């Protein structure tokens, strides 16, 4: 005989304090698609049960790397020095060094990747500036060498009130010819258009005026200078005539004066 007062073991007592209990034999009147199977159960977390949110303000900054900082610093210094005359050649060493350090920093994936890129860019720009200066220097040296190799006929002349010493060059600044004259000195030379020079200064007790002139084969005045007094000196150069215009047209007055035999001596 069955005890009808005994509760069914498969059906909990409705008075049992379990408000979330539902009879499994009955369909769920409020199905929750994609939600938790029962009320008051949390959604599963994709980060795991021990996930901690990041601190306020975002992740901490990347630490500094000596390699990347050095690459950037060397590159900036190389670029600044490259544009300074006379000392810019130092960037021939600093520029490539910055590029190498920056590349190594990128390959080794050191922190602060931007520092490595800055070092590479500034180092490359510094090296480019140095190469441009080098090309310009070579071009100017070629022009100077070409002009120095061209020669022409010039007349060197010095006129003074007393005794003076004359020193002149023709095709080389290292080969100098010296003469002493009184009153006037004149000689015709085959000199470089760049390296020809004429210098003179009073000697002894001479304190009068002193004038040097250089004229070309057509009589065009190329260079002239005047000074006076004890120890006065004057300098003329064929380089002054490279503009093609000279200082004046026509022959200089008195070029045919006596005493211009090239050996000095005699008053004009």
From TrEMBL:
Compositionally biased intervals (Pro residues): 27-42
Signal peptide: none
Residue spans of biased composition, Basic and acidic residues class: 1-11
This protein's UniProt keywords: Membrane, Transmembrane, Transmembrane helix
Annotated region (Disordered), positions in chain: 1-59, 243-268
Membrane-spanning parts: 74-107, 119-144
Domain of life from the UniProt record: Bacteria
Protein name: DUF4190 domain-containing protein
Native species: Zafaria cholistanensis
